[in-house]
Each structure stands twice: as C-alpha cells, then as structure tokens.
Amino acid sequence: MNKLAEEFKDRALKSYESPKVVDCNCLQKEALVVFFEFDRTALNIKTQNYLKGIIQCLKHTKYYIKLNVFENELSPESLKPRSKAYPINLSQRRAKIVRDFLLYQGVWTSQLQIVGYGKHDDGNKLLNLIDVGRVEIIISPEF
Q1: Helix (H) or strand (E) holding 7
Q2: Is 25 part of a structural domain of the chain?
Q3: 99 — pLDDT class (breaks 50, 70, 90)
Q4: pLDDT for the residue 78
Q5: Which residue, among 17, 25, 95, has the nearest Cα to 57 in the 3D structure?
Q6: Measured between alpha carbons, how far is 78 from 37 in angstroms, rounded to an integer?
Q7: Number of independent structural domains in the chain
Q8: φ, ψ for residue 139 (rounded to 5)?
Q9: 11-25 b/e (C-beta count within 10 Å ≥ 16 → b)
Q10: Residue 11's domain is classified under what CATH number?
Q11: Which residues pair with 115 in a beta bridge?
Q12: Residues of the domain holding 48
C-alpha cells in the first residue's frame, strides 16, 4: 500500500467513532460496520453501546443478523511478515467477538449467520483499497 493511502487509513480509523444514536428506521436499509483498531479484536465501549442500541431497536421484531467478515487487513511493513493464515484467524476472532457480544445481549444463535469473504471485492472500493478489515452487520427479516 502506498504511503498516502496508509496515512489516510490511519487518520480515518483513528478518528472514526461508532454513532452514539442508532436510527432504527435505517437498520434494514444499509450495512452497519464494526471497525477494529489495527491488529485488535476488542470492542471498545462506544462500539458496545452502538451494538446495544441496534439490539434495542430489534427487540420486538422478527429479524436475522448476518455478519459479513472481510479480512483485508495487512500487517504493516514494520512488523515481521505474518503467515497467510494470520488475516483469516484475525477476522475469525473479530467475528466471534461480535457474535458473542450479540448472543450475550439476547440474540439467539438461530438468528445469526457469519459469512467470511476474505479479500473478496464487495464493491466497497475505498475500504478494500486501504486494506480495512471489518465486520459488516446486515439485518433483514430473513437469511
């Protein structure tokens, strides 16, 4: 990745915060994205509150949650080269963190589906271009 793209990625991810308020009317219209700090799997407090808000909106509706996992994150050149399995393992751990949090909040296992896309081009050119690993949450009345 070139230096300008890397700087953009660093600035964008460091300044990103999960929304403080969840617009319940938009939940089934757009993907909700959970970003993680580089090489991390923990959900910060703001992201946890965001996920709780999503669950509050869905409390009295029939819904399914699909977690799309993208493993576009590369290790920086300053780190030792990692195995090809490293991004896959990282994305699996991230998906598990989000899944476990949702289960803890009362979502049923039967309502969750996790799909790993690897480096699949999902049409989000900017996020793929700057190698942002992420978990996208898709909410719908059916799988």
Answers
A1: helix 3-15
A2: no
A3: very high
A4: 39
A5: 25
A6: 17
A7: 1
A8: -110, 130
A9: eeeeeeebeeebeee
A10: 3.30.1330.60
A11: 68
A12: 3-20+30-140
88 occurs within a structural domain: yes
70 forms beta bridges with 118, 134
56 contacts 23 by C-beta, under 8 angstroms: no
Kindly state the tokens that stand for 2. Answer: 């070139």
Give the amino acid at 69: V
Q: pTM of this prediction?
A: 0.74
Query: Looking at the domain assignment, is residue 129 inside a domain?
Result: yes
Pairwise pLDDT comparison (139 vs 3), residue with the higher score = 139
Counting Cβ atoms within 10 Å, is residue 27 exposed (0-12), middle (13-18) or buried (19+)? buried
* Beta-bridge mates of residue 68: 115, 136
Helix (H, G, I), strand (E, B), or coil: what is residue 98? helix
Q: Domain for residue 56, yes or no? A: yes
* DSSP label at residue 53: H
List, for residues 35-92, the tens digit of each pLDDT value: 877 778 889 898 899 899 988 888 878 888 988 887 665 555 435 556 767 777 888 8
